Amino acid sequence: MDLTFTPEQQTFRRELQEWFTEHGPKGRLDSPYSEPGYSQHLEWEHALHEAGWAAPSWPSEVGGQGVDAWAELIYDEEYARFRLPERLNKMGLIHGGPTVMAHGTEQQKSEWLPGILTCEDIWCQGFSEPGAGSDLAAVRTTGRIKGDAMIVDGQKIWTSQGIIATTMFALVRTDPESRGHRGLTFVIIDLRSPGVEIRPLGQLHGNPGFAEVFFSGVEVPVANVIGEVGDGWHVASTSLALERGTARGSHTRMEQALVDLARDTAATGASGASVRRLGELAAWVAAYEQAAYASTHEIATGRGKDYASVIKMLGTQILTAVHEENLEVLGADAEVMADHGPNAEMYGMRRNYWHGRGAEIYAGSNEIQRNIIAERQLGLPKEPRG
Amino acid sequence: MKIAFEPEQQALAAGFERAVGALAKPEALRALWDDETGRSPKLWEAVVGMGLPAILVPEDCGGFGGGLVDLALVLESVGRHAVPDALLEALVTGPVALARAGSPEQRERWLSGIADGSQRVTVALRGLASVPDAHVSDLLVYRQGDDLLVVDLEGCTVTRQTVMDPSRRQFAVEVPEGAAEVLPGSAGALDIVLAHEAAGSASVLIGLSQRMIDDTVAYAKVREQFGRVIGSFQAVKHQLADATARIQMASFQVHAAAAKVAGDADDARFAALAARQVALDAAFEANRAALQLHGGIGFTWEHDLQIWLKRGKALEQAHGNRGEIADEIGAAVLARL
Ligand SMILES: Cc1cc2nc3c(=O)[nH]c(=O)nc-3n(C[C@H](O)[C@H](O)[C@H](O)COP(=O)(O)OP(=O)(O)OC[C@H]3O[C@@H](n4cnc5c(N)ncnc54)[C@H](O)[C@@H]3O)c2cc1C
Fold first, then answer.
1. How far apart are the first and last CA of chain B?
2. pTM for the full model?
3. Are A319 and A326 within 8 A, CB to CB?
4. A359 C-alpha vs ligand 1 centroid, how far in Å?
5. Pairing verdict, β B131-132 and A211-221
């Protein structure tokens, strides 16, 4: 066991640091959901892309550099350490694109992947529906196949980035007689098509972006189906595993949240109890970082032992606990939101706090992760399903 | 970055696992409860036979010059099988204290005997009221303020204490005036010894916690109530999933800490404390869930679960408890600002 990075990895890290120092945005960008903010984000994304830093782990044929899982981790760590802007196209980069890489044809890869890197297309994930959240197999949005086209009708909800997205990877029911996870299809829908209506939906922490997406008679080429028609559950499981899976710099952001907590603890006059709580949390933050490394090791060695549910469930709990403690340490002052008013975007820790609470729900709620651990890892009997 | 254990480390642990699997079955452990020494000479012979006491002894003193990471999986096995002997002290903290803090003469005198198994060492870093295995050990390393001292146990008064875990043998030790020698390198070595203690005890706790949960999962798959196995109830599944997740994430930190301590990394002490902290949290939850989900049968003297429950509770306190460790980590985080 040698927990130091190799000289090549350290060189890669330095190269990135130099580039980020020189080219990274100097101040905080405006919200990508505002006009000026969107252009600022786009400018940053183009700079990343032109320098080959949009997605270094993607194959070079589609605009990446084909670096390995450790280099990807280093990239994510540095990106987070420099507190660079949240990626405009994170759904495409993290789950959508890689799912196309895993299950798509060569034709589909060359059609869809470059647009993610250039941000010509902004991707969103259309899985959830009003009646299908945890029970994702209850999807009712239909896709009727008519010749070369699929006619989509129905509704998606809680769609992150929905109001800026151009492209959705969705699960639709292509066999109207089917129930559960049979008869579902994974398809890419161009949201600029006629019959698509995107309605903004607020989020409780005031951050815009969320949407409901309605489809009435939307025509989608059957060529946009990833994998086989009817095999959507299998394809979606790749995407879901990617969503809850690897750390993508979340361990670095968690460390930053811990440092912020430590600063506030010191500034407010650390009590014995708050130092103790800080110590407990710091230990779990350290363990979470090792979990990120362990899962990277699994990917790098191709063994693929699945720690995704453990990482998702405990990671979100630890992060929430760090923020909760920060609220506790700040006391009544925690309510004061610095330069943003109560109806505007929340700032810093307070926004992150609520976002963390959301993370315990999305990507499969933590109850669902417990079911997965109990059933897949411990072999306990499956939940009865309707 | 290379985060897997080396094949030799895995092979050593597998060998130890086979040996204790055969020698430390629950019936054998119970039989030792009524034995005066409470210790199996065969088990100690096996430990010596595998060369385990020599692993952390430097090569110039007849050892293998290894590091904690070489014993990390062995220590998990110690916990998994609830081996009663104070092996953390005999194999890890004792040899490390003498090697790092001892004068050349002290190293010479004690370490080769430890390496070949003719001398057995025990350690007390937190007072002499409850020293493990003083009755079968030849020498004791203990802490007094910032000093580490060594004493031949033959000249000491050793009084057995009554404790909850019938496998443990704990003693109050009185050291006669002038009998102990200070280890002159204590100032530089104390932190290193404490880091070995924290990380090593975390390994034992991980093995112990995993065993409690493995046995509880097995039970939840066969015990039926309301016409179903209890493992099909979500209230049961979720407790097992929570404990499993904690053990798994904690074990990543415990493994990393063993490697960092072995490699004298700058953050070794911090990593070791964090490892102990998360292993304690995981052990606490595993202990709670294991008894709760066994129900009444788990509370009987006849059921073997108590072996792990009691060892777990004893070891949650023995090498610095949750509050003490968290205080130290918290202070370290503030000091780094
Ligand atoms: C911030 C945020 C972003 C999101 N982004 C997206 C997105 O981009 N695309 C997308 O498709 N979806 C998105 N979602 C939706 C998200 O995936 C769902 O909210 C989530 O899967 C839970 O489904 P639900 O909201 O219908 O809750 P429900 O399924 O109704 O669950 C309500 C409660 O019941 C519990 N529960 C349900 N079933 C079980 C069970 N079997 N056992 C135990 N407990 C159970 C849940 O854990 C939860 O506590 C997002 C959600 C949030 C909060």
1. 27
2. 0.96
3. no
4. 10
5. unpaired
